């Protein structure tokens, strides 16, 4: 699509009512999400790394106070 065509589309969108713009926005978001899902599958997205332990370490801190300083951060 050329720049001139994109400018024409933008002008047409400006003329839409709020409800029509929301409908268009919803449709565009659905297309973007679908395209990003398809692209990530094609790119060979890898799962997040995980650590498997057979036994929990004895001194593993599980309380917030043990993980963070006195301010809780």
Q: What structural category characterises the helix and strand content?
A: mainly alpha
Morphology call: elongated
Distance between the termini: 50 Å
User: What is the N-to-C succession of helices and strands?
Assistant: HHH
Quote the average pLDDT. Answer: 82
Into which percentage range does the β-strand content fall?
under 5%
Enumerate how many helices there are, as a single number. Answer: 3
Features:
73 residues; mainly alpha; 3 helices
Describe the structure in your own words.
- The protein is an all-alpha fold and about 70 residues long.
- The chain is built from three helices and no strands.
- The longest helix has 25 residues, at about 20-40.
- It is elongated and about 65 Å long.
- The model has no long low-confidence stretch (mean pLDDT about 80).
Describe the structure concisely.
The protein is mainly alpha-helical and 73 residues long.
What's the helix and strand layout?
Elements: H1 3-14, H2 18-42, H3 64-67
């Amino acid at each position: 699509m050329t720049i001139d065509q994109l400018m024409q589309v933008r002008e047409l969108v400006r003329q839409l009512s709020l409800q029509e713009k929301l409908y268009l926005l919803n449709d565009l978001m659905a297309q973007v999400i679908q395209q990003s899902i398809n692209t990530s599958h094609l790119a060979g997205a890898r799962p997040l790394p995980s650590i498997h332990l057979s036994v929990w370490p004895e001194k593993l801190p599980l309380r917030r106070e043990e993980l963070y300083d006195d301010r809780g951060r």
